[in-house]
Design brief:
Radius of gyration: 15 Å
Helix content: 40-55%
Shape: elongated
């Protein structure tokens, strides 16, 4: 486990080099030690939007992006509300180095989606299977 000061220095360097470019930050994260990267992606040194973009390489839309930007990356371990479709919530969750979009109604989990187009697949699942 990397000590906090060292991890903070790595995060500061990456963010400075990325210069607010999400694609560049994702590429820089690709190039660092996997253990350090895993720690950064679930720390308070990045926000949930940066983690979402790292895993899915897409912008989630204006309102979800704002919500994610205001949430520390550490919250992705518990799940962060990404969006709502009909009566269902799409929750962005990181577990064991994997990012998923979880479809839930707040009480029951219906399905998880991972990989490219996970969000679109989750939305389509709600609209075609649950709504």
């Amino acid at each position: 486990m990397t000590d906090y000061e060292h991890l903070a220095a790595i995060a500061d360097d990456l963010l400075e080099r990325a210069d607010e470019d999400d694609t560049r930050l994702a590429r820089l994260l690709d190039g660092i030690d996997p253990e350090v990267k895993a720690e950064l992606l679930t720390s308070d040194l990045l926000n949930a939007y940066q983690v979402y973009y790292y895993y899915f390489r897409e912008d989630p839309g204006e309102l979800p992006a704002e919500r994610l930007m205001l949430t520390p990356a550490s919250e992705t371990l518990r799940g962060v509300l990404l969006d709502e479709v009909e009566l269902f919530s799409l929750v962005f969750l990181c577990e064991k180095g994997r990012a998923e979009i979880v479809v839930t109604d707040g009480e029951q989990e219906y399905r998880r989606f991972a990989g490219k187009n996970a969000r679109t697949a989750a939305e389509n699942y709600v609209l075609e299977e649950l709504a």
